[in-house]
Amino acid sequence: MRIMGLDFGSKTVGVAVSDSLLITAQGLEIIRRKEENKLRRTLARIEELIEEYEVEEIVLGLPKNMNATEGIRVELTKEFREKLERRTGLPVIMWDERLTTVVAEKAMIEAGIRRENRKEYVDKIAAALILQGYLDSRSHNNESQSE
């Protein structure tokens, strides 16, 4: 079993997947589209990756505002979640993604990735951070229950 992490944006979806032991998240790719509401190809690619990596659960970043309020991006993300659940039949867990893009940017700066090249990686790294946060939380909750 593996879990997929998604960072849903207006024209991109960053994709990450866990290892089979559900310990680490690795960024896979960035799915790009020309128009925000054109999701057919995006959903088809996600389905291909689900099959290829034997994914059984999806974690989708929830883009709340820093003060925890929900704006238009949250509404669009929830609509995307519904489409994902209908199309894949898999459970989709919403995960707070505040600051993941900031952390991804800092990681790329520390790695020496030039500013003009960062856009190529940020969504994929953000997806991995969303998924890693979920995996860590899940692992921590399992450890707490076994004590």
How would you sum up this structure, described in words?
The protein is of the alpha/beta class. It has a single domain, classed as YqgF/RNase H-like domain (Nucleotidyltransferase, domain 5), CATH 3.30.420.140. The protein is 48% helix and 24% strand. The protein is built from 5 helices and 5 strands, in the order βββαβαβααα. The protein has helices at 40-53, 72-88, 100-110, 115-118, 122-146; strands spanning 2-8, 12-18, 25-32, 55-62, 92-96. The protein has a 5-stranded mixed β-sheet with strand order 3-2-1-4-5, sandwiched between helices. The radius of gyration is 15 Å and the shape is globular. The two termini are 25 Å apart. The model has no long low-confidence stretch (mean pLDDT 89).
Low-confidence blocks of residues: none
Structural class: alpha/beta
Number of strands: 5
| CATH C-level label | Alpha Beta
The CA-CA distance between the termini, in Å, is 25 Å
Radius of gyration: 15 Å
Based on Cα principal axes, name the global outline: globular
Supply the CATH architecture: 2-Layer Sandwich
The CATH homology group name: YqgF/RNase H-like domain
Q: Please indicate the count of domains.
A: 1
Strand content: 15-25%
- Which bin fits the share of residues in helices? 40-55%
> Looking at CATH, which topology would you report?
Nucleotidyltransferase, domain 5
Q: H/E element string?
A: EEEHEHEHHH
Count of discrete alpha- or pi-helical segments spanning 4 or more residues: 5
Order the strands across the largest sheet as they lie in space. 3-2-1-4-5
Biggest sheet: strands, sense, closure? Answer: 5 strands, mixed
Kindly state the mean pLDDT as a whole number?
A: 89
